[in-house]
Amino acid sequence: MGRADDRTDAAAGEGGTIRVEVVYAAAPHDVDLSELRLARGATVAEALQASGLMPRRGLDAASAEVGVWGARCPRDHPLRDGDRVEVYRPLQVDPKEARRRRDARAAATPGCRR
């Protein structure tokens, strides 16, 4: 024990509530962030519902991948004070394919060092 997370949970919120963020980045400069105060013991699903993010962005609540602080988790995952719930968008291009395309463009550009 003795971790910062444990101390944060012990001192969390007024009257048994926690503060969480729900975030979705549709594009590099298009970030939807909701700051919420929920009852202690709230789950990822409850945070998503309270944020209104899914219908606002036209996302399918059943199939969207979600996580907390970059780690994928199920929707029944209990949240802690200060958690950041993230909704992940599907990849548009396979990362390996994107790298091949960048390398091909760089090789075709005169004067470009690789």
Structure description:
The chain is of the alpha+beta class. It has four helices and five strands. The chain has helices at residues 4-10, 44-51, 53-57, 95-108; strands spanning 17-27, 30-39, 65-68, 71-72, 84-88. Strands 2-1-5-3-4 form a five-stranded mixed beta sheet, covered by helices on one side. The radius of gyration is 19 Å and the shape is elongated.
**Cα Rg:** 19 Å
Q: Mean pLDDT, as a whole number?
A: 83
Question: Percent of residues in helical segments?
Answer: 25-40%
Q: What's the total count of β strands?
A: 5
CATH architecture annotation name: Roll
Q: Determine the structural class based on helices, strands and strand pairing.
A: alpha+beta
Terminal residue distance: 48 Å
Low-confidence stretches: 1-13
User: Which overall shape is indicated by the principal axes computed on the Cα atoms?
Assistant: elongated
Biggest sheet overview: 5 strands, mixed
**The CATH superfamily title:** Beta-grasp domain
Taken as a percent bin, the fraction of beta residues is 25-35%
Number of helices: 4
The SSE string, one letter per element, is HEEHHEEEH
Question: Which CATH class?
Answer: Alpha Beta
Could you name the CATH topology? Ubiquitin-like (UB roll)
Order of strands side by side in the largest beta sheet? 2-1-5-3-4
How many domains comprise the coordinates? 1
